[in-house]
TrEMBL record:
Keywords of this entry: Hydrolase, Signal
Protein name, entry field: Serine hydrolase
Source species, domain of life: Bacteria
Species assigned in the record: Sphingobacterium humi
InterPro entries per UniProt: AmpC-like, Beta-lactam-related, Beta-lactam/transpept-like
GO function term, MF aspect, one: hydrolase activity
Signal peptide boundaries: 1-22
């Protein structure tokens, strides 16, 4: 338990760690002022320009009670940015001709996936990846049984009243099912498959399986409740017993494909570079350019959401950004890039006052990104 007074003292002495290049006192003061305004417990930042990192900075604490400073190498559970890893893996299988984005999702996941209001309308893999499936989270998303007609009498509640492909609703269940599809197609456990196909080739020390990671690197997550910042230890629940009794294609939500990736700001920036360069990093071609562009193309009019990446024109006025956000357990994560001009930003906080604007964008994240843009890109 952390008292507000402790946070206030901490905010007067923010840590600036691991900078790639020295910045002016004016810039550092502005960054501190933004962090102070939203009581940021910690803030990890990486800026990419001309296709390479030009600035990294960690402010605040990995662990407040131990007064352990945060670094850009600490691991965060990045929440919904995790979805893009599953989509990337799916696109690799599409490239190999193993599946198609037009495939009936029910055939892939192993039980009927049909909106009862439109039983003759196929729900495709692409619809699920772009949140246009007409599926919702009303029954929850921690088990695939919630939408399986053979296992839940209330399965119909998992569907909206509009036809598949005709509306948009952000849905975590979509991506826990996508993770199960990856397992059924490859016969490899989800966390291991993402490691083999994406993390290892990019040399990222990250993953979905907490027991496979260095726990001393985890950045603790905090939520302010009743005037105090409280640690959220359940963010890093290893769920070891469930993993011991794992069934491929069914137990997948244990790893939370929808939000369970643990990765550092530095490594997330490397992953972002791959997408910024349309699937390529150095000599490594993880995705074909066509596939990468397909992921980045918004398909829904409401949110311009593609295949686990979305288009955003409001984050930085005058710039067309691609990326994703995440929020869970007090964490707020951001990965946004401009693939044509080759710049991008990673901004992650492990706790803050989550004030939002009229679009529900987190103001801390938005103000930090705009400040970074003015300092590193616009100049």
């Amino acid at each position: 338990m952390i008292h507000t007074k402790t946070i206030a003292v901490f905010l007067l002495s923010l840590f600036l760690i691991g900078q790639v290049q020295a910045q002016s006192a004016d810039f550092n003061n502005k960054l501190k002022q933004v962090a102070d305004r939203y009581e940021a417990v910690g803030l990890a930042i990486v800026v990419v320009k001309n296709g390479k990192p030009v600035y990294s900075n960690a402010i605040g604490y990995q662990d407040v009670e131990a007064k352990k400073p945060l670094t850009t190498d600490n691991l965060f559970r990045i929440a919904s940015i995790s979805k893009s890893f599953s989509s990337t893996a799916i696109m690799q299988l599409v490239e190999k001709g193993i599946i198609s984005l037009d495939d009936d999702f029910g055939d892939l996941v192993g039980f009927p996936v049909r909106n009862p209001n439109f039983p003759d309308n196929k729900i495709t893999l692409e619809m699920v990846l772009s949140h246009r499936s007409s599926i919702n989270d009303k029954n929850g998303y921690f088990s695939l049984d919630v939408i399986n007609p053979a296992k839940n009498k209330d399965w119909k509640q998992s569907y909206n009243s509009y036809a598949p492909g005709q509306g948009y609703e952000y849905c975590n269940l979509n991506f826990n099912m996508v993770g199960a599809v990856l397992e059924r197609l490859t016969q490899v456990r989800f966390d291991n498959y993402i490691k083999q196909q994406i993390l290892d080739p990019l040399q990222l020390a990250a993953g979905y399986n907490i027991d496979s990671l260095d726990k001393s690197r985890f950045a603790k997550l905090y939520v302010k409740e009743n005037g105090k910042f409280e640690e959220q230890p359940s963010a890093y629940n290893p769920r070891s017993e469930e993993i011991k009794n794992y069934t491929l294609g069914e137990s997948t939500p244990v790893f939370s494909p929808t939000g369970g990736m643990k990765i550092s700001a530095n490594d997330l920036a490397k992953y972002m570079l791959m997408h910024m360069n349309y699937g390529k990093v150095g000599k490594l071609q993880l995705l074909r350019k066509k596939s990468a562009k397909r992921m980045q193309k918004g398909l829904s009019e409401k949110e311009h959401y593609g295949l686990a990446l979305l288009e955003n024109d409001r984050l930085i006025p005058g710039e067309h950004m691609i990326g994703h956000t995440g929020s869970a357990y007090g964490l707020y994560s951001n990965m946004f890039f401009e693939p044509k001009q080759k710049f991008g930003f990673i901004v992650i906080t492990n706790g803050c006052i989550p004030k939002t604007d009229s679009h529900d964008d987190i103001l801390l994240s938005k103000e930090v990104i705009q400040l970074l843009y003015s300092e590193f890109i616009k100049k």
